[in-house]
Amino acid sequence: MKKALALLGLATASTVFAVDAPITGTVASKCVIVTDTAGVYGNPTPSVLSTAAVDGGVEPVVRYDVISADFYKAVISTPDSFSSSPALSDVVNWTGSVSVAEVTDPLMSAYDTNKRTFNNVTEFDLTVAGTVWFKVSSQADYGATKAFPGGNYVSVVNAECIAL
Question: Mean pLDDT score of the chain, rounded to an integer?
Answer without folding.
Answer: 92
